[in-house]
Amino acid sequence: MDQDNSDWWRHGIFYQVYPRSFQDSDGDGVGDIRGIIERLPYLVELGVDAVWLSPIFPSPMADFGYDISDYTGIDPLFGTTEDFDELIAAAHDAGLKLILDLVPNHTSDQHPWFVEARSSRENAQRDWYIWRDPAPDGGPPNNWLSEFGGSAWTYDEASGQYYYHAFLAQQPDLNWRNPEVRAAIHDVMRFWLRKGVDGFRVDVIWHLIKDAEFRDNPPNPHYLEGRPPHETLLTQYSTDQPEVHAVITEMRRVTEEFDDRVLIGEVYLPLHRLIAYYGNDLRGAQMPFNFALLSTMWSARSVEKIIADYEKALPPGAWPNWVLGNHDRPRVASRVGTAQASVAAMLLLTLRGTPTLYYGDEIGMRQVPIAPNQVRDPFEKNVPDIGVGRDGCRTPMQWSAEPYAGFSTVKPWLPLARDFASDNVASLAAVPASILNLYKALIALRRMMPQLAYGNYEPVMAHGDVLLYRRRSMDGVAVIALNFGAESTAITSSAIGFSNEILLSTFMDREGEKVEGMLDLRANEGVILGPPLRPA
Ligand code: NOJ
Ligand code: MG
To answer: Around Cβ 357, how many Cβ atoms within 10 Å?
Structure first.
């Protein structure tokens, strides 16, 4: 697969590490950079190409690192600048790319920029943030709501104005209409790019620009009872403004001052809005995250439609990507069930587009129940008891049956899954047909079969619980058949179009089986079919 190197992110497989929960090296119950260094060999063995780290910068941790008080430092909880330099060198030595989280929409309220801005209305940095006078009744300037509960405006007694925060009051939004802010963040990007970082995942990129007139958001006619209160309004004026695309293009240009870097955007928007984030002439983010699989009903027809709609909507030349899990959403194994988690894995790794794995999904980690006194997530604290808490998908990686799952030598910051003694990397590695070994086999197959990485996506008509598609390139064809159902089923080979052999089953027990006439699929089974692979 000798594409030129600038293409690495197209055929690469990304893996998200939530640093607090990956590996603790210094016995404080919180994961850290040295811990990640220790575990790089695991990532190499798994076969991924790029590691994205959630924020590791100095932070009061009101939102666990998404509230940054120094963009170019390392929080002592995670280690030192030297540790980071060692990590990037070690990752590159191991052939892994390293992606950092860039959080440009807001800083911590402890960031020196905000401390300055807040100090007086006349301060030179006042306009780096979003300040407005109170409404005539003294209340907030408009009706915008914080995603983490309550008004998005907090009153600053001393200066008599409100500041805007799309998230916590401890996360004031920067004013991206101010060129000084843009220049400052560009310099932050250059700082890390110069160190050799291979790109950024940009936090809430669709939030960066707000309506110039700060008009009230309209009510959401589709609000569902029981959903978080901020969803009572549409974010028509507070997010996804047309001017944001010029801002993203500028960021893209900064990455292009260096070779072979990638810009990934976090975007939760409907498909027709999402694709705008590729930018005019593809000058936006190379990969606006495609989160469609995070919220879909898990059925063959729904997923088939998601793929078809996405493939159709992609602008010419835009490269697709797929995500099954992240640190904000319930674990995939809990959303679709343990039996279907393997089918989901096969889907993710056989679709056209760059896959991003979330740490622990490869061992089938499930949501960990969080007792009220264990809650750490500010979202759950502010908007309790409706199921928005994110702690359950951020629990420590389960490495072994040792105390604290080999994650730490002390009680971790979040509880461990109760079943960690059986469901962990060490024990699953020893079970030939485990989900972990399935992930490894899928990744290896994607690497061996360029049609899986680069081929076209061709839907094949199927019914009921079966999702069927081909991936075709000059290198050949692969057929993927996924049974989303809990009952066995059969497909005629005319539907598949040719007779071939099974290269991989999610149960890992049918490799080499010839398929002529009928393809039987067991309950919850997925298979990849293709011409017999010649040993390398
Ligand atoms: C999106 C991040 O993924 C989430 O974890 C965070 O709370 C918000 N942005 C605010 O930064
Ligand atoms: Mg630690």
So the answer is: 24
Contact 11, 1 (CB under 8 A): yes
Please tell me whether the overall predicted TM-score, pTM, comes out greater than 0.90 for this model: yes
Q: From the CB of 393, is ligand 1 less than 6 Å away?
A: no
The atom of ligand 1 lying closest to the CA of 105 is 11
Q: What pLDDT does 2 receive?
A: 45
**Residues in Cβ contact with 268 at an 8 Å cutoff, skipping those fewer than 6 apart:** 206, 291
396/359 Cα distance (integer angstroms): 10
Strand partners for 399? none
Around ion ligand 2, which residues have CB less than 5 A away? Answer: 24, 26, 28, 30, 32
Q: From the CA of 106, give the closest atom in ligand 1.
A: 11
The highest-level CATH class for domain 455-530 is: mainly beta
| Residue 125 Cα to ligand 2 middle (Å) | 35
pLDDT in tens, 337-376: 999 999 999 999 999 999 999 999 999 999 999 999 999 9
Question: How confident is the model over 96-121, as pLDDT tens digits?
Answer: 999 999 999 999 999 999 999 999 99
Q: What's 8-106+185-439's CATH class?
A: alpha beta
DSSP lists the bridge partners of residue 529 as 479, 502
257 is catalytic: yes
Per-residue pLDDT, averaged over 512-519, amounts to 89
Torsion of CA 473, 474, 477, 480, to 10 degrees: -20
The ligand with the least distance to the CA atom of 327 is: 1
> Which ligand does the CA of 26 lie closest to?
2
Q: Which ligand is nearest to the CA of 68?
A: 1
Contact, 446 vs 471, CB < 8 A?
no
Domain ranges of the chain: 8-106+185-439, 455-530
Q: Is 475 in the pocket of ligand 1 (CB under 6 A)?
A: no
d(CA 88, CA 95): 11
Give yes or no for residue 329 CB within 6 A of ligand 1.
Answer: no
Written in H, E and C, the secondary structure of 375-432 is CCCHHHHHCCCCCCCCHHHCCCCCCCCCHHHHCCCCCCCCCCCCCCCCCCHHHHHCCC
Inter-residue contact 86 to 51 (CB < 8 Å): no
Lookup result for tokens 């190379």: 286
Distance 77 CA to ligand 2 centre (A): 6
